[in-house]
Amino acid sequence: MKILVAVDPSDTVFLPVSKAADIAKKEGAELTLLTVAEAEEDMNNYLDGNIIERLREQATKTLDAAAAVARGAGVTPKIELETGLSPEEYIVDTAKDGGFDLIVTGTRGKKGVRRLLLGSVASKVVTLASCSVLVVR
Ligand SMILES: Nc1ncnc2c1ncn2[C@@H]1O[C@H](COP(=O)(O)OP(=O)(O)O)[C@@H](O)[C@H]1O
Ligand SMILES: [Mg+2]
């Protein structure tokens, strides 16, 4: 079994990661943490290498912290960092191409629209994924 956790680059608490690590531990599954360093659509300097570098640094720190949470639950995860405008596409494509059995996401980002019960990336992953999706609350 292969489990893919989508980790929001601005996350500081990693509930989906610890839930996924618990499942991976029980099932003897392989665990991968994927973060997409996400450029804002209105960021007109998107092609500026410095901005991309800063986004990737932030995402790397987030992934390191998330990996520590998984190791704390007894699982050593693989780590993947991507850069792009459509996190949902990377998440869904990585799951499909890598033969993953389960995608695990959270419900909302910190900066998302508060009235939405399920964030835009998470709802697109639920809709577009070809495997099962666990949304952790
Ligand atoms: N850039 C990203 N990289 C990886 N996973 C992401 C990314 N953005 C969102 N996710 C996943 O989607 C979940 C919900 O976030 P999101 O849908 O972006 O909510 P919001 O619309 O409130 O920002 C996150 O907990 C994470 O699992
Ligand atoms: Mg978001």
Report on the structure:
A 5-stranded parallel β-sheet has the order 3-2-1-4-5, sandwiched between helices. The chain has one domain: 3-Layer(aba) Sandwich (Rossmann fold), CATH 3.40.50.620. The mean pLDDT is 92. It is built from 4 helices and 5 strands; from the N terminus they run E-H-E-H-E-H-E-H-E. The protein is of the alpha/beta class. Helix 4 links the parallel strand 4 and strand 5. 34% of the residues are buried. The longest helix is centred in the middle third of the chain and has 24 residues. Adenosine-5'-diphosphate (ADP) binds next to strand 2, helix 3 and helix 4.
Kindly provide the radius of gyration, computed on alpha-carbon positions and rounded to a whole number of angstroms: 14 Å
CATH topology: Rossmann fold
How many domains make up the 3D coordinates?
A: 1
Strand order across the largest sheet? 3-2-1-4-5
Small molecules bound in the structure, each named once? adenosine-5'-diphosphate, magnesium ion
Strand content: 15-25%
Main beta sheet, described?
5 strands, parallel
**What is the second-level CATH architecture?**
3-Layer(aba) Sandwich
Measured distance between first and last alpha carbons? 23 Å
